[in-house]
Amino acid sequence: MTAIDRDSLHTYLNDHLAASVAALDLMGRIANAHASTPLGNTIARLQGEVSVEQETLRTLVQEVGGTESAAARAVAWAGEKLSRLKIGTGEHDSSGLKLFEALEALALGFWGRGTLWRTLDRVRQEAPLPDTIDFARLARQAAAQLDELEAVRLEAGIVALTTPMAAVAAVSVASSAEDMADGAGGVFIT
Asked: Which long-range contacts (C-beta less than 8 Å, at least 24 apart) are formed by 7-11?
């Protein structure tokens, strides 16, 4: 067995803890914006599960003799607030692109949570870490949550990155009428 590098471990855990703060805030915004829909319900449920994991992470920080970093938490909070300019949800997201990008950011975070738990499970084989937390179970849970989020993200991607056929047909009809008026003629598939 080898010794734990406490400073590195505390930094690593605090980085993940700070990211969870930002993720939970983003999940709350998505759940609220899509309340009483399948998307809103899924995100709200996942938010509850991630919140429980966040508390597990806080407990682990204390068990290894660390404290929660106010600086890391403040940076995550500020980063999440700035991200609202680019990703998220709301009335100015008619294409769904902001929602899609928000779900993509969450998917990256969910993947990161899985790596956290897998890494800690592996480190515990080499160095003393508390055995009060089942890292392997948390890694499996994060993988299942990522799979569920990925299905939602892909559907949001279809909405954000494609144009419904009705809109394409309307544009084609409008173009056809303009071309006919200009004498251009042509065949348009709608």
From this structure: 9/64, 9/66, 10/61, 10/64, 10/65, 10/66, 10/67, 10/69, 11/69
pLDDT computed for residue 16 by the predictor:
94
pLDDT of amino acid 170: 52
Exposure of 75 in the CB half-sphere (CA atoms within 13 A): 10
CATH number of 6-163: 1.20.1260
Q: What does the pLDDT look like over 41-69, one tens digit per residue? A: 999 999 999 999 999 999 999 999 888 87
Q: Where are the domains of the chain?
A: 6-163
Q: What percentage of the chain reaches a pLDDT higher than 70?
A: 74
Cβ neighbourhood burial of 97 (10 Å; 0-12, 13-18, 19+): middle
**CA 87, 158, 32 angle in degrees (round to 5)?**
45
The radius of gyration of the chain's CA atoms, rounded to the nearest angstrom, is 23
Which phi and psi angles does 126 have, rounded to 5°? -110, -25
Element (H, E) at 20: helix 6-33
Q: Residue 167's pLDDT is what? A: 53
Predicted TM-score (pTM) of this structure: 0.78
Best CA proximity match to 96, nearest among 30, 35, 45: 30
